[in-house]
Amino acid sequence: MSKNIVVLTGSPRKNSSSARLAAAFTDGANAAGHSVTLFRVAGMKIGGCIGCEHCFEEQGVCVQKDDMQQILDALRRADSLVLASPVYFWGVTSQLKQAIDRMYALLKEGTKIKRAVLLMTCGDDTDQAAQSSIAMFRDICAYQKWQESGIIVAPGLDVADEIEGRAELEQARKLGSEI
Fold first, then answer.
1. Which ranges in 1-119 belong to alpha helices (H)?
2. DSSP tag of 59
3. Residue 139 main-chain phi, psi, to 5 deg
4. How far is CA 28 from the centre of its chain?
5. Under the phi-then-psi rule, with left for phi > 0, alpha for psi from -120 to 50, and beta for the rest, what region is 122?
6. Torsions phi, psi for 86 (to 5 deg)
7. Which of 30, 119, 108, 101 is nearest to 76 (CA)?
8. How many structural domains is the chain composed of?
9. CATH no. for residue 156?
């Protein structure tokens, strides 16, 4: 059965390793016949959530008129969500975190999302630096009752081209085709 997947990439670098990991996932998903909508949130105008709860009174419509509305619209139709980010100071990038925070607008009305995936890269030689992001992801999945459908962390990457030929790219491609 075809899935409707939203991918949010958080790296401020256009050709980053995490963007390449997301592209491998997307390639696998497209090859399997799934519909994928990808947003490079670092290139979008997305303000931080101001906690006004206007969205709770207006069926998920945020008071802020910025690029997040198109992401919210896509998330309403999605049954799977993929978050992709490099580790920045033991967390996801601030750009991705703002988009995640703004997903608050959908809490009251809910979404059709059933599955979620986390794709991360980091400069450390182990995945230890990604642990706080993994914990956040798992907490969100538990709260939203989303099935955690995969976590891929590619450690030891300081430069974008270093991910080429790595096993994590094939793992992401396979995950995209199997989600």
1. 17-31, 54-57, 68-77, 94-102
2. T
3. -65, -40
4. 16
5. beta
6. -80, 160
7. 108
8. 1
9. 3.40.50.360
Long-range contacts of 160-165, Cβ-Cβ distance < 8 Å, separation of 24 or more? 160/13, 160/15, 160/16, 160/17, 160/20, 162/17, 163/17, 163/20, 163/21, 163/121, 164/20
One DSSP character per residue, 116-144 reads EEEEEE-SSSSGGGGHHHHHHHHHHHHHH
With CA atoms as reference, report the closest residue to 97 among 12, 5, 6, 4.
12
As a whole number of angstroms, the distance between CA 83 and CA 145 comes to 16
Q: For every one of its 179 residues, what pLDDT tens digit does the chain have, with 9 covering 90 and above?
A: 789 999 999 999 988 999 999 999 999 999 999 999 999 999 999 999 999 999 999 888 899 999 999 999 999 999 999 999 999 999 999 999 999 999 999 998 889 999 999 999 999 999 999 999 999 999 999 999 999 999 999 999 988 778 999 999 999 999 999 99
Residue-by-residue DSSP string for 17-29: HHHHHHHHHHHHH
